[in-house]
């Protein structure tokens, strides 16, 4: 089985009360042989408050990046992109990549 198909199959979390970010944290810890098990309160608030215009793939990419870049067992605010923590405005989707622009 290719890594790509393995990634796609396990992208959706089981139907539990856990959040998407927790699923991806577990997944990328295992995939990268890391142990990031804590999330700083401020980082959690940023993850919850962000609008996620890029949908689940954007969240998946940011969590993977944070897991790989973490120096400790904690996902901290400095590991998240400036758009997520409110230091830059969210990027606007390109024409044709969101449902509204396809229906105009």
Q: Care to describe what's here?
A:
The protein has 104 residues and is mainly alpha-helical. The protein has a domain at 18-88: Helicase, Ruva Protein, domain 3 (Orthogonal Bundle). It is built from 5 helices and 2 strands. It has helices at 3-9, 20-31, 41-49, 55-69, 99-103, and strands spanning 38-39, 74-75. It has a two-stranded parallel ribbon. Helix 2 packs across helix 4 (55-69). The longest helix is centred in the middle third of the chain and has 15 residues, at 55-69. The radius of gyration is 15 Å and the shape is globular. Mean pLDDT is 77; it is low at 1-17.
For the report, how would you describe the main beta sheet? 2 strands, parallel
- Proportion of strand residues: under 5%
Radius of gyration: 15 Å
Beta strands, count: 2
CATH architecture of the domain at 18-88: Orthogonal Bundle
Mean pLDDT: 77
| CATH topology description of the domain at 18-88 | Helicase, Ruva Protein, domain 3
By secondary-structure content and strand pairing, the structural class works out as mainly alpha
Which of globular, elongated, flat, extended, rod-shaped describes the shape?
globular
Distance between the termini: 40 Å
Strand order of the largest sheet: 1-2
H-E order: HHEHHEH
Could you name the key traits of this structure?
mainly alpha, two-stranded parallel sheet, 4% strand, Helicase, Ruva Protein, domain 3, 104 residues, disordered N terminus
């Amino acid at each position: 089985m290719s890594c790509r198909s393995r990634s796609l199959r396990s992208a959706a979390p089981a139907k539990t009360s856990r959040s998407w970010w927790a699923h991806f944290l577990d997944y990328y810890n295992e995939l990268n042989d890391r142990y990031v098990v804590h999330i700083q309160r401020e980082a959690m608030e940023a993850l919850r408050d962000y609008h996620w215009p890029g949908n689940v793939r954007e969240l998946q990419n940011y969590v993977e990046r944070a897991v790989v870049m973490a120096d400790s067992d904690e996902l901290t605010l400095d590991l998240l992109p400036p758009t997520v923590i409110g230091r830059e405005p969210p990027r606007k989707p390109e024409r044709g990549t969101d449902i509204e622009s396809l229906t105009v």
